[in-house]
Amino acid sequence: MEHQFFLDRLSAYFDNELKNEEHVIVHQHIEGCEECKKQLLELEKLENLISSNSELSENDYWEQSAQKIESAINKNTESETIPVTKQLSSSSIWWKLTGVAASLVLVAIFAFEQKDTNDELLKDNIKSPVNVYQKDIEESIPVIVDTATDENLSVGAIELQDKELSGRQIEIQTIETEQTSPAAAKPVDKLLPKQKQKIKTEPKKSESTKVKEEDIVSFDEQLSKYAPDIGKPVEKLRSSPKKTKMKGSYKTTSSFSETLQQSLDSNISTSADKTKLDYWWRKVFIYSEQLEMQQKKNSVRYLKSAKSDTSNKKAELSHSDKNLLYKQLFEAYYNIAILTTDSTEEKQAVDFLTKYSVSVGNSYNVYALRFLELYKTERSKQKFEKE
Amino acid sequence: MNKKKSEDSDSSQVYTTGSKSDEQKLIESAQNGNKSAFGKLIRLHQKRLFRFVYGLLNSFDMTEDIVQETFVKAFQKIQTFKTGYAFYPWIATIARNLSFNLIQREEKKESLDKLTEVGFDPSSTDISALDKLLDDENRKRLYKAILALPVKYRTVFTLRHFEKMDYAEIASYLKIPPGTVDSRLHRARQMLLDAVKDLL
Questions:
Q1: A194 touching B (Cβ < 8 Å)
Q2: Rounded to whole angstroms, how far apart are CA atoms A149 and A286?
Q3: Domain ranges of chain B
Q4: CATH topology for B123-200?
């Protein structure tokens, strides 16, 4: 029994991990115990075996592994340090346009959200909606800046804030007034040239509180330029029951077919509208970035099943949300293909849709296929009309 | 007291003073955004890190993932690294945390205590993976025996023999009493002796 006690201490003795007194006692025992001496010798041999054989071999694997790690680092730093706006920074005009477009998208989303939540309020204040929504808009401004995912984007939003303020006010008024006067919800292509011209001269902040019929119509066009989904009459929006909530800032209130129809309605009238094209390009960048970020998060597979880590879970998009992102990306490319006069641009957009429509195994491919078909139909329709 | 603790302690864990080593220069260069300098650091430490993580996880694929993730994270946070300290313990800590997180996320084990008590053992050791890492038959036998150890013994063994930690360090690392480190290491050695007796 006593011997077993010493045998159990041998490992720690060998490592010099015993306390002073204990070390001395064990040492004295070993001196007179052959079995312990033998055991100690074996431990020493094992130690030698491990130290001489524990190094992993020098072979090609390590260089390959290092290169793999380096490329992972490169991929990681590229996607992290080059925000979308920086990719466009070579042109200051581009930069401004992206700022405008992004701000408008965000404004539109917030206006839309508020309309959703304040549906009842909207009914009650139908006669004097301006005051209510002016307050809401003012409150929403800092939120817009906060929600911008990109630092440059938010800077852009701040700079453009004053400029856009008047536009925002009109935007809300229009949505409400459309409810009171259905005549106001004219399709864009029916606008008179005079009314179109009006957009450029207005709006000023002080004038924005006065809601005129002309203003409403002109805004309708202005809004449809940037966000065709948003300027629709309230009734129509209400009638679409499907509301898919995105984790993030993106929201849609229409089903797939409705989105298509809305895109068609708003796009056929004006072809090759540069600003509108920019809007869709901006959308492409935003959605691509979202998808890329998501891909990056999923790059290490175990992060996927991070049930214990709520922050990861929050950051992760659900399957349907990912599909929605792809759908919106396809929609943006489809619109680019339709709007553009540049054949390279068109090819790029069509190629993107084709690429996704032919690959199988993902549920969102069907959207790509449908947009591609729609694009082809639209093009042949335009050809037919020309002839 | 003729303890050889200081000899056993890995020199890389000791605060390095005096003239700047090559590693320190590489770190400083990497902190200035030099990726090739960081590449050299990867090549300098990846083998040891791999061995350490492999000892913890006993899964070639998972170890590859963790090692890659560790270096990616290290590069992201390289600015926070205090110059003057050794690089390896820092990345080993990152790798350790990632490994334990992985185990928790994989829902194999709920906590570190459980990891060390019950452990994370794949059904069998992936022997074919060893071919990539080792070319000597004896080494393969030894690694096979090490990886076949139950995790609670293997973890302690890895930290002691590969990371050259002393008992107190292992105890605080695994949050277990030093006495438990002693008994587990003793048991691990006994099992290994039985497995590789003919190699001694």
A1: no
A2: 10
A3: 16-107, 123-200
A4: Arc Repressor Mutant, subunit A (1.10.10)
